[in-house]
Amino acid sequence: MISQQKAGRVAGGTFLSLIYNLEFQLLALVFVMLLPAMWLIYAGAVSQRREAMDSARKDAFMVMQAAEQEVAGLSHGARLLLMSIAGSRAVQQLNGPDCDLRLTQIGPGMPEYAHLFAFKPDGSVFCSSVPRKGRVNVADRSYFKNVFRKKDLVFGDYTVSRIVNRPVVIAAYPAFNPAGKVIAGVGCALDLKRLSNTIDKLPLP
């Protein structure tokens, strides 16, 4: 069995590697959601012997491992979904009506996302899985700037969606044309309420 000291070193290594990982920001959000549960684990052991404190540390480590696995799954799922949308003919042609139709067909099967959408290099949203109220522009959002700069999957900051008016975290991915030029971006809005419910269901000790 891995010693508590070794487990601590493993946890430290995992944390340092996440700092340089694009999922770190989302994991940090999940960690904040887990703070009450982790506090209860430690608080319950404060008045007990050292063995109980060691057990509490182990339990907290297991909670963080479960959270890390959840975030990794979310990141992988978002990448696959957005790559598929980015390669669709509707997005490649910047065809708003066809793209709207495609996303409205996909959206209901993806309840973990508040909405799906696509945007042009000027930030204007040209299609969405849910109806838009007027013109929507996301050029001031962090994920918009980063997706065209990094040309890879990125996560945005905690924000309130301009399309569904709910707290979300956006995952965005670039759409490349056959010549390899980024012609648009696609995004999925991770519903933080659903994420919170998922965190509540994690196998806590």
Briefly say what this structure is.
The protein is of the alpha+beta class and 205 residues long.
Write the layout of secondary structure elements.
Blueprint (H helix, E strand, L loop, with lengths): L3 H16 L4 H20 L6 H37 L2 H4 L3 H11 L6 E7 L5 E4 L13 H9 L3 E7 L6 E10 L5 E10 H9 L5
Antiparallel strand pairs: 1-2, 1-5, 3-4, 4-5
Helix pairs in contact: 1-3, 2-3
What does this molecule look like?
α1 runs parallel beside α3 (about 50-85) and α2 runs antiparallel to α3. This protein is α+β, with helices and mostly antiparallel strands and about 200 residues long. It has helices at about 5-20, 25-45, 50-85, 90, 95-105, 140-150, 190-200, and strands at about 115-120, 125-130, 155-160, 165-175, 180-190. The protein contains seven helices and five strands. The chain has a five-stranded antiparallel beta sheet, with helices on both faces.
